[in-house]
Amino acid sequence: MHISHLLLLLAAGAGLCSCTQLEVTAQLGYAQLALDGDVGYSTPAANGEATDLAIRQDIQSAFGLGEDQGTPYGRLQLDTGVLVWSVSGFMFEEEGRGTLAANFGENLTAGTEVYTDFALNNAKAALAFEIGLGPVSISPGIAANFIDLSMAAEDSIGIVREEVELAAPIPLGFLRAELDLGIVALVAEAGYMSVDVEDVEASMLDLEALLAVRPLDWLDLFVGYRSIAIEAEGLIDEDEVDLDLTLSGFVIGGGVRF
Amino acid sequence: MPSIRHFLLCGLFALGACDSKVTSTLDPVLQAKADTITQCFPEHLAKLNALLEFADLWRLSGGTNPPDPTGLTWSEQPDGTIDVTITLTGFTITSTISFYSPTGLLQNLTLPATSLSAAIDAAATELRNLFGAANPFMVGEWTMSGAGVTGSGALTGIIGGSANQNELEELRTTGATPAGGPPAVADGTIELTGTHTCEMTFNTPRLVTDGSPTQEYPIGVITVRLEKTAATVTTVNAAFTMDGTATGVLTVDTVPGRFEINLETRSIFHRR
User: Measured between CA atoms, how close is B238 to chain A, in angstroms?
Assistant: First the structure.
């Protein structure tokens, strides 16, 4: 599919929406998320060539991360009847202490006790074309997932600090499915991208499932699950970074519809 | 017309190049200070321990002050002072111990010749009999010498407790000369010379080594200044706190956290 075809499809949907009812849902909640996975980071050899030695290390034992962390969670959705626009986001932070199993970066060596700061700010904007099938609707579309990830590790004294920062809007293929039974609705969203370019191989899978209860027309309560899995391996600033991280956990909250 | 795949690839290029970066930083000043501590302090602590073991002879608690160690020789001088030499592995401590009234008058006491331990115990008892509840004191002016080791200073021990239950109330680093009472607190210095030169200047206004007959490790704070001279000179100022356990804590200015030091093994472990 070419992007022009998709845009035409979305434009057609936008035209249709002008004769349907507009619904806005604003939700705020609490996410209990935990990090899991491995990270590797190494510097080039003296001759400038990549060493291919970015040995992945478990973020729990090596960096002391992985405990459940609470974070605020927000979501705004605009349903035009055909097109569904949604924006959601959260900010995740964790500090930990671990012992490196392998070298990390230029100066932190295996066996060093390190103090780690991890932050992942995420904002996801999605546009889906809703295809209604009775109480079920399927909404394919596109999403832009803005990831702002930073991970810094330093020795206990603070002499050496190694930091990896990834910040980029990542476009995703996106699918949204909803089962609406009136007072109860089940919403699932999935976004995925996998590419292999010159210096970086990366993939991202973003899953979100929400069970919404609507006891009143204007009131929306939800509980759900969110998972973001990021794999990236390649050269950043000529250093080799290899990470495989999953941030997942439950979300709960409520909102209003009008 | 770009394809969806091209659009996705552009996004990934952003991941690789846009605002993504790796940063490696090393603080050379902090590194030099940490090296000064880890490379200098353990050896200095060994010498300081030897000095405190020498002062351990002044422990009086219950009249059971420790016996003379191996390598110790001593002799009483005509003016009542005692000359002491302790030969340890690699270096020697020499000292002159003087006994004073609470107002700083030198005392010429009657001391037994059996051992330095017995002599100090007898001196403490006699001072208590002479001066009652006021605190007499003793001053040990010391020098340290050996291969790659030099040092000097003075320790003052304040005698307290009840008669025949004497105790060393506290130990101070001081000057050698009383002035109407115990000498003022002053620095001691130990210098070690090897692949690099480490000089430690230290003082303490109050170190308790004799709080009970079973006390094994000192209680108190020693202010330390370490200077390491190699290609450059690095100086750190620190406080070494001992709480009566085998672990002392060294806190160093401008260095975050603390260094925990095992007084027996002299191993160092840094904690935030």
Answer: 15
pLDDT in tens, chain A (258 residues): 444 444 444 444 444 444 456 889 999 999 999 999 999 998 766 555 555 567 889 999 999 999 999 999 999 999 888 898 999 999 999 999 999 999 999 899 999 999 999 999 999 999 999 998 889 999 999 998 888 999 999 999 999 999 998 888 888 999 999 999 989 999 999 999 987 765 778 899 999 999 999 999 899 999 999 999 999 888 877 888 899 999 999 999 999 988
Provide the shortest C-alpha distance from residue A21 to chain B (in Å): 31
Q: Using CA coordinates, name the residue in chain A closest to B28.
A: A159
Taking Cα atoms as reference points, which of A160, A178, A143, A152 lies closest to residue A93? Answer: A152
pLDDT tens digits along B19-30: 678 899 999 999
Q: Which long-range CB contacts under 8 A does B179-183 form with residues at least 24 apart?
A: B179/B104, B180/B103, B180/B104, B181/B102, B181/B103, B181/B104, B182/B100, B182/B104, B182/B137, B182/B139, B182/B156, B182/B158, B183/B139, B183/B154, B183/B156
Q: Beta-strand (E) ranges in chain A?
A: 23-42, 57-58, 69-79, 83-99, 113-129, 131-133, 136-155, 160-180, 184-196, 200-216, 219-236, 239-257
A162 touches chain B (CB under 8 A): yes
In tens, the pLDDT along B126-166 reads 998 898 778 899 999 999 999 999 999 999 999 887 655 67
- List of domains in chain A: 3-257 (2.40.128.90)
ipTM of the complex: 0.75
Angle between helices A3-17 and B4-13 in degrees, nearest 10: 100
Give CA–CA dist A148/A168, Å, rounded.
Answer: 7
Tell me whether A235 touches chain B (CB under 8 Å): yes
**A131 close to B (CB below 8 A):** no
Tokens at A168, concatenated: 């980029």
CB of A63 within 8 A of CB of A56? Answer: no
Closest of B140, B151, B156 to residue B90, by C-alpha: B151
A160 neighbourhood in chain B, CB within 8 Å: 24-27
Given an 8 Å threshold on Cβ–Cβ distance, is A195 in contact with B8?
yes
| Nearest neighbour of A156 by CB, restricted to B12, B14, B257 | B257
Minimum CA–CA partner of B12 in chain A: A170
